[in-house]
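[Solved] Which block belongs to which protein?

Original post:
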Amino acid sequence: MESRIEEIKKRIEPLRQEIIHHKVYSCINNIESLRVFMQYHVYAVWDFMSLLKSLQISLTCTSMPWFPKGRGDSRYLINEIVVGEESDIDINGQRKSHFEMYLDAMNQCGANTHEIELFVNTLLESGGFTKAYKAAGTPNEIKEFVDFTFIIATSQISHLQSAVFTFGREELIPSMFTAILDDVAKNSLVDISLFKYYIERHIEVDGGHHGQLAILMTQNLCGSDEVYWQEAGDMAAEALQKRILLWDGAYNKIKELGL
């Protein structure tokens, strides 16, 4: 099964490189452009949490009465990831989800959180994505990214959920981004320490322990089924293509604003 993981990695590597070296990073050179980037990226942080919970629902019993569900090792893997993502330790030692940590970082550096908060609150009240997008004025690139995530998240097909989670998510932020943030911090009086902490934490966690747990989870779910492995590779590639479009949207907005 390790060879099948390597096959997927080889297949998606050109897309990964396109994301890691995306032109959006080269135009984040001041606090204003960073704020725009964050206003796009925050949606990926939010829907990542939803994809995570869809896997927990698929692989564990989340209702009462409780009954054992699925493989014990898969339950363990997803529950361990949930603990880290949903209740991590922020820069002050307080327990928060990564989404809440991201909002704190946006507020600290003056990025506009009104759109994402209006989106989330409208979705909570109405249950409808169309209403939430309209209320928040969500850009099309973000809509397409989130819509794809929720097609997978609501599919109840756990090997596809796991593939998108494993290969299409936050470890795609390059380590060189921390150097970009250092330059922004040097040239601005605005404090971005919470965002730097978030990025460093995500590179450490998603690129390390959680990344390995996710790979094991995908291996467990695909097993020896050739069709599952092919579908997993297809969805991983599509997830990366959606991320490229999201980054294109952020880049175009920064350029449109002349930042």
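(Second protein starts here: sequence line, then its structure tokens.)
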Amino acid sequence: MNELKFHLIGQFKLSSDAAKAKDDVAKLMVKANEDILRKGAPPGGGAEVVNWNLDENIITVEIKSDRYVRAHDALLRLRRSLAALLGEHHIGIRGVVIEEFTIQLPSEEALKKKIPFVKDMRYEEGKILLTLDVDEQQIENRVPDRIINLIMEKIESRKYGKKEHWELLWQSKKKIHKFREDPTKELMKRNWIKHGAGRGQWIFGPQITRVFRAFGGIIEDEILRPLGYHEMMFPKMVPWEVWKRSGHAKAIYPEMYYVCPPKTRDPEYWEEVMDYYKVTQEVPLDLIKEKIDRPIGGMCYAQCPPFWVFLQGETLPDDIFPIFIYDRSGTSHRYESGGIHGIERVDEFNRIELVWIGKPDQVVEHSERLQERYQHVFDELLDMQWRKAWVTPWFMAQEGLTGLAEIKEVGTIDYEAYMPYKNDWLEFQNLSVNGNKYPDGFNVKLQSGEELWSGCSGIGLERWGAAFFAQKGLDVENWPDKFRKRVGELPEIFKFL
């Protein structure tokens, strides 16, 4: 049976000739194989120095090991013991050089991926063979272990496939739908919306804006106020440090809009750009590319992560929880690639983000109350045909993971609306209990030492609109009475010849 195995050849660079210490080094190597490199491993397991050599101011070691004491960890253990021993002879260790480092991982199939710090990867007889290109600092920073974890994740993800796990929880009764057209096409036909100048961007006219504001009023009156939410304003430019802590930095790169600052604000530095435009009436993108700095982060992708900097590193009293907050201060941005469609799948969208924080039982209880409020809104006020499903938690999906939580407390519920014009369903709402993910990531603690959890729920106005118009159409007389009263008379401002 193939197992995780390591083979490493490394050199310790010394401050001077260590010939006088050779006998002591030999004794240390014996002790290492008997004790130092076996600690923490079951009987017969661990690492072993299979060969070593001292040549003036270089000690070369060859180490083989199993999963219990990995060869790179064994090298660091040896460095500590050698440093203490050689110090008695007034000899120091100047550095460590990794000459060769190979790892064998069990796998049922090859992995054809480019992995950082892996200079060669091949597959043979049920195992992946890696040759790493790492140095002393990368070993200290646990890079080999993260490489192994990354490859294991990629192997494991293949077992699930690309589709997220989906389990129906509840669905409403079927409705009779008089409207069966693509709502976006009808919105454009009536000039309620027009394409913005940007990719995946819409300009919403007075009529649909009135509808969106009616949605906002329902959310305010039926959800935010009854459940005790307080408004905050979250940043919409998100630095890397936030995404590293939230976990998004693992996988969002194909979908984010990057933010790059200018290298300088000096007008003289930018004069050739400005002059080029004045002469050609064209923006010199290649020239601009040379004058902007590396990305400092990106535009808002998931709305709540920047909020957590407000609590980062804090210890909070138990009696202030649970806390309920929301943000509706700006747009979110995702690069949707070929998936752009209508107003429901866009690069720029308007969203109200709900966040709740507390002890685990408080967070789970609030999730249940919020689900009840959503059901009231979708059934009683909007008269929608909808369903909800338990899916791969958003934070697992966005970090490249798949699967389904066994206990339905930590995880995500998707709300889907039936779209008559294409006989399919659209996810138009979600709700997640994120467990301790954010409090741990941003080092937020309770005074009592108990675990702190959080949840979030994003309300996308474009998705609500797409779902509502697909079922009810754009003629106000076909809308539910309670919603029609909230909207009032739709304004007619623009006329086009």
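Accepted answer:
You had them paired correctly. Confirming on the second one: The longest strand covers residues 93-106.
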